[in-house]
Amino acid sequence: MGIKSRKPTTPTQRFTKLLDFKELEPKNKKPEKSLTVPLKKKGGRNVHGHVTARHRGGGHKRKYRIIDFKRDKSDMPAKIISIEYDPNRSANIALLEYKDGERRYIVCPLDLKVEDTVISGDRCEMKTGNSMPLSSISPGIPIHNIELNPGGGAKIARGAGTAATIMAHEGNFAHIKMPSGEIRLIRKQCRATIGQIGNINHERQSLGKAGRSRYKGRRPKVRGVAMNPVDHPLGGGEGKSSGGRHPSTPWGKPTKGFKTRRKKKYSDKYIMKRRPSKKKRRK
Questions:
Q1: What is the pTM of this model?
Q2: Quick one: fold of 17-203?
Q3: 192: exposed, middle or buried (C-beta count within 10 Å: 0-12, 13-18, 19+)?
């Protein structure tokens, strides 16, 4: 989808840049009723009522669209009926109709259009939207919706504009270059979908006003340095002061560069190369 700017009749509109939704077809289509479930707001709280994600609450009412991340309906072609907006994710979704009449949602890849046909199987054409095991995909082809465990459903490369790449095949594993730049070993039996996820302009949006963040369920954030010492480790001090210590959370856990990954994690043996640091990425 492209980005649209408005003629600024108010100060807010001067900085607003939003998606134009031209890719959605047909326009203003309601979601498939059989594939939606109610979505209860949690306000960032867990089952015990404790806040685990701060600055969450409010927002527009939503319904959750059930997405087929497993693509386990093998060797049956499906036609794209519509491409729709999903308020629960950054990417658009596509509604499939299989030959037997069953309908399912998938995350919509780039350049996939209404009336196109996709299929899932062990050996099928290497075409955008088709799903197959990593062992059947040639190196150098962009992929998304990658499983970490065979049959467990897609876990990697599911956001708008993301794609991973197969670098090589070795033994029972494929070398996958993640969107972050990390190179990881994943079993060849795991499935992936060909192509890059669409809606690549999602990150170029500028909401323009605080109210639009509230629509999305995001509440205001207050900087730690603006608080009192009783509320945050960085609070207090004469003038602008950062507390004279390394940046941290309100509970004292270091942030901004402090490595929080466990030193001995079971998945370390599957990581061939770590993602580059932020400093290297900027260069």
A1: 0.89
A2: OB fold (Dihydrolipoamide Acetyltransferase, E2P) (2.40.50)
A3: buried
